[in-house]
Amino acid sequence: MDKVKKIAVGLLAFVLVFSSCFMAGNGKKIYAAQEKSSSLKLSVSNGKLVILSGKKNMAGRTYAVKSGIKTVRITGNKKLSKVKYTSSNKKVLAVNNKGKATLKKPGRADIKITAKYNKKTITGKITIRVTSKKILVAYFSRAGQNWNVGPDNSIGNIKKGNTEIVAEMIAEKTGADLHKIQTKKAYPSDYMECVKVANKEQEEDARPELKSSVKNWDSYDVVFLGYPIWCADMPMALYTFLESYDFSGKTIIPFCTNEGSGLADTEAAIKESCPEVKMKQGFEIEGNVAQYSRKKTGQKIEKWLKKVIDGK
Ligand SMILES: Cc1cc2nc3c(=O)[nH]c(=O)nc-3n(C[C@H](O)[C@H](O)[C@H](O)COP(=O)(O)O)c2cc1C
Q: Domain map of the chain by residue range?
């Protein structure tokens, strides 16, 4: 056999042996079981422990794990030594000293981390929220001119809608997907013009056409439904949304931003529109609080989520 042939035969033998490792007796390919996992990284900034999810520091915050994830892996850092992990609730998650947290049942648990850095002991904590449900946050929100968001509670201009801020916080805290409910015809940016359109749509019991639909609707168990209060009701686009989907077997959890009306009668209106749906207690917050007091907003949302998601 000349040299080229020898190499070719050698290669073929290698490929056969290698591929047979991944074949079951019935000839079907077996791949190494893919463990569903998400990951966090440790670091240090100004002598403090940082727990990174992507670029976000989640130390002291709630990190939600999407349904289906079985483990959270926390990887260490060369600057740190003697890293230790403890779980506040081993029924929800157990963590070993390599930073591998195994998620056991829905709920919340804190992982406390201690490590040596420059001969000092530093500590950090992260709360992990484990959910078994697939969650969607569907919301309507309008940026532009609005009431009570300018100086001294005057009319002002906002780049991001108040409800959108709340929707994004809920999604981050629950591991949910986001869907923005948008109408084909945009609402006026001018506040007074928008009130005129909203009033007219209400009088006509309109169903404004929506721009896009939710992908993989059937896969969701829970839908957080968010909206601003418009003229003591939901924007009419919310009725279009509620009438466009089959909500049987799903749970709706409403939330709204407003400037004094609270949830108005919107929970009853949702129930009337989807009698078959299960509902949980809604959440309301003033739009200007959501816009300008993010910390307070986050704390209020977290308190409510403990009731409606963690069951506490
Ligand atoms: C057309 C329109 C009607 C509104 N009607 C009410 C109302 O009846 N009661 C209330 O408390 N706030 C009302 N507001 C204030 C909004 O509910 C509040 O600014 C909300 O946070 C806006 O959310 P967004 O920025 O996500 O659109 C109205 C705002 C608009 C634009």
A: 37-130, 135-308
Three-state SS for 226?
strand
Report helix, strand or coil for 41: strand
Instruction: Using the atom order of ligand 1, give the atom closest to the CA of residue 198.
Output: 1
Q: 108 near 92, Cβ under 8 Å?
A: yes
Q: How far apart are CA 69 and CA 62, in angstroms?
A: 16
The Cα 16–Cα 12 span in angstroms is 6
Whole-number Å distance, alpha carbon 178 to ligand 1 midpoint, is: 21
Ligand 1 atom at minimum distance from 141 CA: 26
- Residue 20: the pLDDT is 38
Write the class of the CATH domain 135-308.
alpha beta
- pLDDT, one tens digit per residue, over 262-291 is 999 999 999 999 998 999 999 999 999 999
Spatial neighbors of 246 by CB under 8 A, at least 6 apart, are 217
* Distance of CA 201 from the midpoint of ligand 1 (Å): 15
Fold of 37-130: Immunoglobulin-like (2.60.40)
